[in-house]
Specification:
The complex is a heterodimer of chains A (about 170) and B (about 350).
Chain A (H helix, E strand, L loop, with lengths): L9 H20 L2 H17 L1 H4 L3 H20 L10 H7 L5 H15 L2 H12 L4 H8 L3 H23 L8
Chain B lengths: L14 H28 L7 H12 L2 E3 L11 E9 L14 E10 L5 E6 L19 H12 L5 E6 H10 L3 E5 L3 E3 L4 E3 L2 E6 L1 H9 L11 H21 L3 H14 E4 L4 H14 L4 E4 L3 E6 L4 E6 L3 H6 L14 E5 L9 E2 L6
Parallel strand pairs in B: 1-10, 2-5, 4-11
Antiparallel strand pairs in B: 2-3, 3-4, 5-10, 6-9, 6-15, 7-8, 12-13, 12-14
Helix pairs in contact in B: 4-5, 4-7, 5-6, 6-8
Classes of the chains: A mainly alpha (about 170), B alpha+beta (about 350).
Chain lengths: ~170, ~350
């Protein structure tokens, strides 16, 4: 297949794409150095398969950056929290009582638990801030369906994040 | 939505970031090209027509991908790691925040002679490096692939993860699974209630109940009967693919299910998946070789948990799945070998005179 004329070069797209990867990385990790490394790795992978992905580069970079950031969360915690009933308190005892840290951790856990399609919509629409129409086109679906998936996902995310956003000390129900 | 989580300082991609990304990118591209040439030499491409190809590409882009490095084999066989994950179900309890867990894992191998090997991987298998259960790595596909590769020594060319709802839809997409049931199978927990039949067709929900059932009357309380039942269902599933893998409508239905419920490795295109389906179809039900992994129980003193370790008898079995010719030393403190029951010993087998 021939490359459509509107496919731009990796060089031209670098600034926009690295900004998306950094945004996703920072929103999930809350650390500049980590977010920068996520952006660098995501862009390196994009470079390696540029011809294949340039038609939907923003969505691809957002996905990869999300996966990388989630992977980094995993490395931050030496054990995998299967049972997260006490994550509010363990977050506090680790010396960082920040609500944002709790929210990020809760967000990552929730993302992992969302059904694939809902997770995809959240990543593209709300983490990468891509427009609904672009999300629909990348996922091969309609704007209505994107809205529906986004709505369902947000209901679940809000329910998940509520304990993190409320006073964490009241969490041990 | 998540603007409050943004970096307060504006981000500006500097030249250093760009050059580092391009440098790593060049190396990754070279690695991919070498892998592509190797794969291209061993495979024949199946033409599906220009219109078909365009349609397939559109479907293809809708499927979730994970970018993982796979330790590929070199003898022309193809190993596919199948992982069934247990996402949190609808109506979950608010405080019960947990990620995905690998419920069922199996390695499917397309041999160069056209036969298809199926190896069930017990989720309680112990990763010797970390001392953890291998299904503890389920929320990170790369870590899961790496851990299974290191623990079993087998190459893994492709990764397919599907959630429970996807499993149901997939079974229904191939028109149900045909299986012979010798004894009544009942499990009040999972709602399973199967009566003996020389050949019954399981719909998606029933097949899932059968795979997940842990409390079937007559079970001896361990995970092996469940693995054996999972094996029987997977074999029936592959037989269904063997039957319908050439049917474009089935392929189309399956691709829709994959788009909603599956996660595939980056190099597993829908075309490649169809191609693998055709290889399974060519093997036919008679060419499917279900295999069980010889393991022993180990009571891990570190965390007091019961796990499974490979026994020396596992070495020749793993070799059939592409592992190097090595011996496996018995694990100190491990119990006697537990042979997982074969599917027919739990009362399930393929329908007689099938097709």
């Amino acid at each position: 297949m021939t490359t459509p004329p509107d496919h731009r070069s990796f060089d031209d797209r670098f600034d926009d794409l690295s900004a998306i990867a950094y945004r996703v990385g920072y929103r999930l990790l809350g650390d500049r150095e980590d977010a920068r490394e996520v952006a660098q790795e995501a862009l390196a992978r994009a470079y390696a398969r540029w011809r294949k992905i340039s038609g939907y580069d923003e969505a691809w970079v957002a996905r990869v950056a999300t996966n990388l950031a989630i992977g980094r969360w995993r490395k931050r915690r030496p054990t995998i929290p299967f049972d997260d009933h006490d994550w509010g308190t363990s977050g506090r005892s680790s010396g960082d009582p920040s609500n944002l840290t709790l929210e990020r951790y809760g967000l990552v856990q929730s993302l992992k638990a969302l059904p694939r399609r809902q997770r995809e919509v959240v990543v593209l629409r709300y983490l990468a801030d891509l427009p609904e129409r672009e999300v629909a086109s990348v996922l091969g679906t309609t704007v209505g369906s994107v809205k529906q998936h986004a709505h369902r996902a947000m209901v679940r995310l809000r329910a998940d994040l509520a304990p993190a956003l409320a006073a964490p000390e009241a969490h041990d129900v | 939505m998540f603007e409050h989580l943004d970096d307060p300082a504006p981000f500006w991609p500097d030249a250093e970031l760009r050059s580092a990304a391009v440098k790593t990118g060049r190396r990754l591209r070279l690695r991919r090209r070498v892998a592509a040439v190797t794969a291209g030499l061993t495979l024949t491409v199946i033409p599906v027509g220009v219109a078909g190809a365009l349609y397939v590409e559109r479907r293809d882009n809708a499927i979730d991908r994970v970018d993982i490095a796979t330790p590929t084999g070199e003898d022309g066989s193809v190993n596919i790691l199948l992982v069934g994950v247990d996402h949190r179900p609808e109506g979950f309890d608010d405080s019960d925040l947990q990620g995905s867990r690998a419920d069922t894992m199996a390695l499917v191998r397309i041999n160069t002679d056209g036969t298809v090997g199926v190896l069930g991987i017990p989720r309680d298998l112990r990763d010797p490096a970390s001392g953890q259960r291998i299904n503890g790595f389920a929320d990170d596909p790369q870590a899961l692939v790496d851990t299974i590769h290191k623990t079993l020594g087998v190459p893994i060319d492709h990764f397919v993860e599907i959630d429970l709802a996807g499993f149901i839809d997939m079974v229904d997409a191939v028109g149900g699974l045909d299986i012979a049931v010798d004894v009544p199978l009942r499990d009040d927990h999972s709602g399973l209630d199967l009566q003996p039949s020389p050949c019954t067709t399981l719909d998606g929900e029933t097949a899932l109940a059968l795979v997940r059932a842990r409390h079937v009357e007559g079970d001896d309380g361990n995970d092996f009967s469940r693995i054996a039942r999972g094996h029987a269902v997977l074999t029936a599933g592959l037989a269904a693919v063997a039957d319908g893998g050439n049917d474009l409508l089935t392929v189309d239905r399956l691709s829709r299910v994959l788009a909603d419920h599956a996660l595939l490795d980056d190099d597993l295109s829908l075309g490649r998946l169809t191609e693998i389906g055709r290889m399974v179809a060519a093997a036919g039900p008679a060419g499917l070789l279900p295999t069980t992994l010889p393991v022993a129980e180990l009571n891990d003193p570190a965390n007091g948990a019961m796990m499974l370790v490979l026994t020396p008898e596992a070495a020749p079995v793993l070799q059939q799945f592409g592992a190097p010719d090595t011996t496996i030393a018995p694990t100190e403190g491990a119990g006697p070998p537990v042979q997982a029951p074969r599917a027919d010993s739990v009362g399930l087998h393929p329908c007689a005179g099938d097709r």
